[in-house]
Amino acid sequence: MCIKDFFSKLMEITVNNLTKFKAKRVFVASLLSSSILTVLPTTVFAQANLQEITYLLPAPSTLPAFGPWMIAQAKGYYKAEGLDVKFVSARGGVDVAKQVGAGNAVIGGAIGDTPIIARAQGIPVKAVAVLGAGSLTQLVSHKDERIESPRELKGKTVTVLAYTDTTYYALLGMLSKVGLTKNDVNIQAAGPAGVWQQFAAKKASAMAGVPDWTMTAMEAGAQVDILPADVYFKSMAQAILASDETIQKNPQLIQKLVRATLKGMKDIMANPKEATAVYVQHVPAHKGKEASVQKTFEMYNQYVYASQKVPGTMDEARLSELQKFYVSNGVVPKESPLKDLYTNQFVLAK
User: N or C: which end of the chain has fewer CB within 10 A?
Assistant: First the structure.
């Protein structure tokens, strides 16, 4: 073979090898692309298809009171409904109602009686679910005070969050059932920290509090007795609020949000220890405090969530009595039609 033929043959082999190499690269790249595309729909594409929802809460979401919501988020109950829920803290339940009624958020958390106050101010919102048959408020006293009835609060100091808060109205309701008024008790509006701090420091004989504050006071050394408000005055548990407009125009969205949130509550009711593990993993601010969180969840189970035949339902008779009390005590000027205050359509739907 001459030198010319040798170099021609070498060039031919080189070109063929390069062609085969490029073909392999194209084939491998095609395989990789196909693999990525088959995975993406369940990850990136699925995330992109989630509907973003702003969910207003009346206080910081890190409070164990919002355990059902955080567990629903942690366990993917909202995402299973096609929703990407972002929690934002407002300034109390009435502020939540105002924002939801104005259309600044489609959903919010408050108390079952919040629509009574909201409707009186012309805010078009309803409770679409109530998380429990009990009251969020309990009368918590020091054991050595031996307070067995609100009647024994006469002349004593009792702390509440604020004079416009549900804990205050629940306390007034309990006092009214034993023939006392606010003038018979030294009621102190102490704020979200002072309400339990003053009680734990024994600057108050009792507090109208929620399980979160009770647990914190106990951690600070308080030995307590707990008297459920329901024994004397049937105030409400936490509730989910939506506007009339959203209920009418997008009931499917409300249904999804209610269904997912109630699953979170049911998880706490079924197994508070397991729910605590999920919650603390999702809300790392509570790491190392698992025992306290679990006890708080157990208090919610005992005093707030329990005894609701159908989870989430509003008790109309209870709501009616509560509204009458609000009118008679000048909290609102007149009664609103009960059907303007709530709907059970989303908790009774199959």
Answer: C
